[in-house]
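sorry for the late reply, my laptop died twice this morning and i had to redo everyting from scratch. anyway the thing you sent over, i finally got around to it. pasting the sequence first so we're on the same page, its 110 residues, then the predicted structure underneath. double check i copied it right bc i was rushing
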Amino acid sequence: MTLPLLQTGTLRQAVGHRQKTSEPVAGAVWVAISIILSSHLLLANPQLFPEFLKPAAQWLILDLYDAQNQEEVADIEGWIALAIGLILTSLVTWFAIKIWRRLRGPRPST
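ok and here's the structure:
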């Protein structure tokens, strides 16, 4: 006697569904970790990246954010690093997906 799940093939569908739901989770983990690591790299080694434009930095820190002390400047520095990390991660991920799809070829229609 076989199980009804094996006869109808729904077990294979359930396993396949679990694999499909793991892709967004893996993507979210990749994005979170890469944003944090790139932000840390930017803050720990600022000489590796181009210098932020002085007029733009003054406008952002003094006029827009209205920083009153060094702690507030460090806060905005962290937010800028996270934003740059998000942009870099998005670009790298987008290029990787495009390259992967081009190398893999077109998906077969089901």
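The helical segments are 4-8, 10-44, 54-64, 70-104.
thats about all i looked at so far, will dig more tmrw
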